[in-house]
Amino acid sequence: MFLKNAWYVAAWDHEITRELQQIVVLGEKICAFRSEAGELIALEDACPHRKLPLSNGRIKGDTVECGYHGLTFNCVGQCVWAPGAGGIPSNAKVHAYPLQEKYGLVWIWMGNPALADPTDIFEIENYDNPEWGINRGAAMELDCNYLLMCDNLLDPTHVAWVHQSSFATDATKDTPLRIKKTDDGVIVHRWMMDHEPAPFYKKVIEFEGNCDRLQHYEVRYPSHALIKAIFTPAGTGGPDGPLHEKTFVMDSYNFMTPTTEGQTRYYWFQLRNIRPDDEALSKMMSEDVQKAFEEDRDVLNAVQIGMANKTSPHIDLPIDGGQLRFRRQLQAMINEEQQVDRQMAE
Predict the structure, then answer these.
(1) pTM more than 0.90
(2) What does the pLDDT read at residue 296?
(3) CA distances, 13 to each of 39, 61, 79, 104, 328 (Å)
């Protein structure tokens, strides 16, 4: 089950063109394209006549022509032409999904269009700040339920075993976690004091010696995450630390779009507070981060199979507290949304 009254990432902005294409979000097939003026359009990908996908048809100006019998639909999903002498049936229409273009991403609203508010889109600090650099990679396809990736992004401890060559240090194994529930999600965080920097960050930070490190893992409903990493010279970090002028900050943004119950499309990029124009640094960071995310994918794909076919109950550990709180609240939101939908349908 999914929360429908929410914004999800449908694509990178460059992926939606004048060519009709099918995308799948929350199990719904959607025909996406751009109008002649460049406006983003998303329609239910099924002609109401015989359900041929509209993405199998043709663009005619700012309309879509079904490839079976030529029914033609405008950008809001209304049929404007149909064959035969009987006129256009009143129910010859398809659902149109609200879309927004922001942060290089295409966002889609999957619920009631009247509730779609662009100001509810996940806010990304420093995206347009010229003093911050950015690196990104292609969307990844995961063969697992999106909540497993949400669990992963509320689990700072997993890096000690999954990412030993990149993000792990001894401190990541057992430094206590703090959990905070917010109005729009859950944060799991901890400061690890006076230890050697992890291998990936050692290549990036601009100071020598040990560090104080913050792991800030935050997931907001329905499935968007901010992973903030702070590395500062030992003795300058902590909740009340002054932070050093050479403090390194990396904000990793992660957007999990459920395609089906068992598949997820994963969009990501990082912002950093150093060397914004260093293309070599951006390339190195993208490659190393993608390698780490591929390690996550291997684990989570296997967890999906294991959980779906378990022959004995699984257990939870104290380190799972953030994940469990997130899942409980999200399920409550889904239940409430479905109850409202049932009441409106009566």
Answers:
(1) yes
(2) 97
(3) 11, 21, 27, 5, 33
